[in-house]
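Lab meeting, item 3. Inverse folding demo.
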């Protein structure tokens, strides 16, 4: 059955075995804030398309290691659904993924089964239904009947099971479920369930806050920010287009960005033709910071350039100085993405090369190393469930080698930007500190740590202290935070090589 946006917004009867109108549902079980998401106004009759697409994405994420941020836009573009339908589908998908750990805890109690004992098809439907029942303004009857209808088409024998579990979930408020599934747990376990982060990630983020000089009391705000829907950010490439020519609202930090109220940024002509790029503010700021710092004239380089967003900003900035950018990646597919990202720039060359084999000399080098991605969980929510603590150790060797290569390939007086989309202390401060220590020990004490927060402050007009991480020899590293800057959690160290 198709339902209208008006009906979903009104809330309707909350029904269920508890009876009566249960009022509006919340996004966070501890507060009563609503995500004002309504069902689409014009679903295709009998198709239940938004829930169908969301269920398909959830299933592929669970069974095929698919990435929702790649899969969902492709599906939306093929359906040509309207903006309201696309927004509803997006919230169904990302919302269910962001709160998956909490929903799984509820499903285990409501079904009396361990999650691993439930087949993927009905489990994806239960997660989809739980999100509507516990975190959206969707009436019980719609959340139940329409979600069951989706799974009934592909796995009809499980429809009754899904219906029974969702009815059980609808019988209690989110806060009641939270109390039930966190009873007699540790504080870390409670936070992990309430905010749907693995316990090791909760511990790692606690240490990251402390390590970067912030108060550990900010932890809950940081975890909550990871579950807040992130708006689509678009960067206007300098020299090709001004952000005033783009639809949307100007970003508060990046002077070249806007946020869009659309799930289909490719519909924006400047994005389609390469003059603008879909990009988070934090990523744009990393590239702008490197471009901002003075260095001798010469070729610039991006050693880990895929998929190409930062390379596009750097290339545009280099073009403004009549300079060239060489962008490398060790993956042919990612090199192709870089070429697409920089297609509007004639001064950028993209090539297949391991960043550890950088030759130089380059006057400016960006080394945006592969990392855990713990700073971008609001955009890639499934990543939190795929990463493991051992991944940090596995990546550290590569991160050190890439930074060391960048330092060697940098021209005298040139600048290196080391960045990650993670605040994890072992991927940020410890990597830079260790590489600089070993370099000095080998007799090459030729690197100056610049004041990255001050550079970011000059670009954004924001207090430098909000970006501040640790101080090193008169300079400072910088760390952006989702809960403070409403951006991905980017780390940045700016390092100058002695002349």
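The presenter then showed the designed sequence:
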């Amino acid at each position: 059955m198709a339902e209208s946006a008006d009906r979903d917004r009104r809330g309707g009867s909350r029904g269920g075995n508890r009876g009566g109108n249960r009022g509006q549902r919340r996004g966070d079980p501890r507060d009563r804030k609503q995500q004002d998401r309504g069902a689409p106004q014009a679903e295709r009759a009998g198709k239940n398309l938004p829930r169908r697409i969301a269920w398909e994405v959830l299933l592929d994420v669970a069974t095929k290691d698919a990435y929702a941020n790649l899969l969902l836009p492709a599906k939306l573009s093929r359906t040509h659904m309207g903006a309201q339908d696309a927004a509803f589908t997006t919230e169904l998908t990302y919302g269910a993924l962001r709160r998956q750990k909490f929903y799984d805890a509820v499903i285990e109690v409501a079904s009396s089964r361990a999650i691993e004992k439930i087949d993927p098809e009905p489990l994806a439907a239960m997660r989809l239904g739980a999100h509507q029942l516990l975190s959206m303004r969707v009436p019980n009857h719609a959340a139940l009947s329409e979600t069951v209808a989706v799974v009934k088409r592909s796995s009809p024998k499980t429809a009754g099971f899904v219906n029974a579990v969702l009815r059980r979930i609808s019988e209690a408020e989110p806060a009641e479920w939270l109390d039930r599934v966190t009873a007699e747990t540790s504080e870390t376990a409670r936070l992990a369930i309430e905010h749907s982060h693995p316990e090791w990630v909760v511990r790692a983020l606690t240490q990251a806050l402390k390590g970067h000089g912030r108060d550990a009391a900010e932890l809950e705000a940081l975890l909550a920010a990871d579950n807040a829907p992130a708006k689509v950010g678009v960067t206007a490439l300098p020299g090709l287009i001004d952000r005033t020519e783009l639809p949307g609202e100007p970003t508060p930090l990046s002077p070249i960005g806007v946020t869009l109220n659309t799930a289909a940024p490719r519909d924006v002509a400047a994005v389609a033709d390469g003059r603008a790029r879909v990009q988070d503010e934090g990523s744009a700021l990393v590239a702008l910071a490197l471009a901002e710092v003075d260095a001798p004239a010469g070729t610039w380089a991006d050693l880990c350039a895929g998929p190409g967003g930062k390379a596009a900003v750097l290339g545009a900035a280099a073009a403004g100085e009549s300079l060239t950018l060489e962008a490398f990646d060790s993956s042919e597919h990612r090199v192709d993405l870089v070429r697409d990202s920089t297609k509007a720039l004639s001064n950028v060359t993209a090539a297949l090369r391991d960043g550890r084999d950088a030759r130089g000399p380059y006057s400016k080098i960006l080394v945006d190393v592969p990392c855990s991605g713990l700073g971008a969980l609001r955009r890639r929510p499934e990543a939190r469930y795929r990463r493991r603590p051992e991944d940090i150790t596995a990546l550290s060797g590569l991160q050190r080698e890439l930074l060391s290569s960048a330092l060697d390939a940098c021209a005298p007086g040139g600048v290196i930007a080391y960045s990650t989309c993670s605040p994890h202390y072992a991927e940020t401060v410890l990597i830079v500190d260790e590489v600089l220590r070993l370099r000095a020990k080998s007799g090459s004490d030729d690197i100056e740590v610049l004041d990255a927060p001050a550079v970011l402050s000059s670009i954004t007009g924001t207090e430098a202290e909000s970006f501040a991480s640790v101080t090193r020899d008169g300079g400072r590293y910088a760390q952006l935070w989702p809960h403070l800057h409403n951006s991905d959690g980017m780390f940045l160290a700016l390092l100058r090589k002695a002349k």
